[in-house]
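Sync notes, pocket subgroup
Present: LS, DG
LS reminded everyone that the earlier model was apo-only. Rerun requested with adenosine-5'-triphosphate included. Inputs:
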Amino acid sequence: MILALLCVLCAGLLHGPFQAHAADVDELMRQGRDAMAEGRLEDAEAAYLAVPAPGAGDQEDEGEYASARMQVARLRLAREDYDGAVQAARDVLAHFSGHAEAKNLIASIERDRMPTWERFLKDCQRFLPSLLSGAAMTLLLVFCTIIISPVGGLIIALGRLSSFRVLRMPCWFIIWLFRGTPLLLQLFFIYYGLPSLGITLKPLTAALIGLGVNYSAYLAEIIRAGIESIPAGQMEAAKALGMTYGQAMRRVIIPQTYKRLIPPVANEFTALIKDTALVSTIAMVELMRAADQMFNTYFNVTAIILAGVIYLFFTTVFTFIFERIEERVGVYEKR
Amino acid sequence: MKNADATPLIECRNIRKHFGEHAALDDVSITVDRGDKVVIIGPSGSGKSTLLRSMNFLETIDSGEILFEGKPAGYRTVNGKLVLDNQKNLCALRTQIGMVFQQFNLFAHMTVLGNVMEGPVTVLGQQKAEARDLALEMLEKVGMADKAERYPATLSGGQKQRVAIARALAMRPKLMLFDEPTSALDPELVGEVFEAIKKLALEGMTMIIVTHNMGFAREVADSVAFMEDGRILLKDPPAEFFGKDCEQPRIKSFIDRIM
Ligand SMILES: Nc1ncnc2c1ncn2[C@@H]1O[C@H](COP(=O)(O)OP(=O)(O)OP(=O)(O)O)[C@@H](O)[C@H]1O
Ligand SMILES: [Mg+2]
């Protein structure tokens, strides 16, 4: 039998791939099937292996070669010859680069043979580039909002504390409106709603306006409470020195609020890191959206876990930074 | 001992101040000449603080007139109603009037030196170096120069109040207002603060002091005023005020009570 096969092989080699006859292929396939049926797995493998590769223009045998090699791969897989199985599947791919079954077989063998941690690393490698560029966008949103919102918050807070009604009322209204509705709704309105009023914004602009105003409104109330917590005597002493209201605020009152503001502001900014995920709904590709895209493409939960790790990293670093700042500010309160 | 300049430094004419229905100042008139040291005494709620704060425009009066160096100060009349003057004018007036509070009100986030430099630098626009020398000079005067780098929280009440005095003095005011400067202090710390005020009085500073320290009133005051229910019932030199065995029994009983 083996001799016969060798002869066929030699004949194949002598004649070259172009000389392979359809009749030989049919014969080999039948031998393989018979051997399989009789449980002679080695014979079956040899028969299938002998099916020659198709030559250019030899359209008829294509399917036979592929299915023969796939049979070889499966037989080898069954006797745990993984390298051999992969080799057979590769043979198929060498001729039919789009062969899905061969690809899947190789992929699943490689995955199965990989240790868990290595598989995880490989996933990380695959997802990290897009997750990191999403994370960069998240950081950009966070930093811009951290710069915008304290300024906006201070202006709104001072407006709220003003003795002029024309300043007090609009500032009260902004706080009431933006703290009283969901951020998600505000983002939707700014991005999808404003165009119908003739204002079309880029996603990034819309996101920054939404986050900026929303966080300004929250910080305004924190800053106002901070200012009101400073004893009235401080303002009186400043005025008695001849300071204007502005000088008194800038030199005396506001600097004393810093220490009290840091814990609640740190809270808000930590929440902000997570709230940036909401802008993924208005066509912004940031960390959450990137993770979502990876997950939907590969149905692999590692992308979600990785995004969580990145968010945790950000919030941890923030907490650490704010704790250091809190230690430095307000040394004057220590005895 | 009167200054050659005959115009009073500050004069309140018939000032009234209501908090709701309550009259905190009820037709008060008082004249303080340059170099005068006036002590105001009176029971709690009689309007002493309100009077002092009105002189510094921290309190807005309902009617009457305040003259600083002979000129109406701090208010405009709009449609027959008194309205506080603009901020610029008020600030200019306040730089000439120093005020020391019962609760010190030192700027908690600044060092002792920073507190004293703050007015000259921020309000008068002095250079830091210049203000620093001035501040140290003022701190020296109240015996606090060695604590220049400390924060207020690390000081005793008496030390805080002396820094507050130095802070007011650094503006080189023409008038000093003291509102119960020692009431928040432990008895053993009262002396050091009054020493500092006495020193200032000897230098000829014009001052109005609300205090219940009769010894200080006797020793330093040119005149002592007694307030009750928003009125000044009596204003006399201390010798007469304490000496003529007050014909007004209310004043006598009050003095007896606090002595
Ligand atoms: N901001 C305010 N609002 C309402 N009422 C006030 C206010 N400030 C003072 N009063 C009232 O005005 C009156 C005079 O108060 P003021 O503080 O001038 O008294 P005082 O003579 O300084 O008393 P004390 O010795 O307790 O300091 C009191 O009846 C007080 O309750
Ligand atoms: Mg008082």
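DG: The longest helix of chain A spans residues 116-161.
LS: The radius of gyration of chain A is 35 Å.
Action: DG to write up.
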